[in-house]
Amino acid sequence: MTAPIPRLEIRNITRVFDGRRVVDDVSLKVMPGQVTCLLGPSGCGKSTTLRIIAGVDMQDAGEIYIDGKLICDTVFRIPPERRSIGLMFQDFALFPHLSVGQNVAFGLSGSKAEKRARVEDLLDRVNLRRFIDDYPHQLSGGEQQRVALARALAPRPRIMLMDEPFSGLDNRLRDEIRDQTLGVLKDEGTAVLLVTHEPDEAMRMADEIALMRGGQIVQRGAPYNIYNAPVDRAAAAFFSDIN
Ligand code: ADP
Ligand code: MG
């Protein structure tokens, strides 16, 4: 049997800022339908890695593949809008002048009826169908976040990149929104690369964790394997304040 092709693979990505290797020879894979979590303390290079995959920053070395096809190395580069990547960031704002429905429909092509059906289905799944004609400022932070999820998923991206998408939310809401988000992503079968500095979020959401420190991946594996057998004392300490 041949090995399945990763939805996303990055190989030996390096990014240097001011002579410092902020991302240092990072390789990782995200398999179809899986959530891979890039986990590590603040400043370790997670967002830079994600920005390079999204195509808004450029690596100094290394390659990016989607479904086995090269999309970017240091000479060849498919532009961000043609990578079939969905993005969700903490402060990735909705368009304030568009209704909830128009926000979700924004990146869609097809007939009006097809777009409407897709928008209604996604809003149903995040329990926000009743807000379809409202405007973002009429919604709570958690509701806006769920609209942002629906908007990112609407064009059926091959991969979703999520950078600390839940960190602006209040504690009481966070677990509920994490679980709902995970449910929608699994239903859609979307491959996800989720960046977080919170071990409990990675434990809750990931199929696979890549533990990052100082620009490098220091350990990777299933959440409970990493939790139960951290690679060194620093990794153990990082996981110890999990709640
Ligand atoms: P994380 O998302 O893990 O918190 P980042 O990828 O945002 O980390 O940043 C990693 C390091 O790279 C930090 O020390 C940050 O200050 C530095 N950095 C990020 N972007 C730039 C830039 N455009 N120019 C210089 N340094 C940067
Ligand atoms: Mg970051």
Automatic annotation (TrEMBL):
Positions spanned in the full protein: 1 to 243 of 366
Coiled-coil regions listed in the entry: none
Name of the protein this chain belongs to: Iron(III) transport system ATP-binding protein
Key words of the record: ATP-binding, Cell membrane, Ion transport, Iron, Iron transport, Membrane, Nucleotide-binding, Transport
GO molecular function, one term: ATP binding
GO cellular component: ATP-binding cassette (ABC) transporter complex
Domain ABC transporter positions: 8-239
Organism domain of life: Bacteria
A GO BP annotation: quaternary ammonium group transport
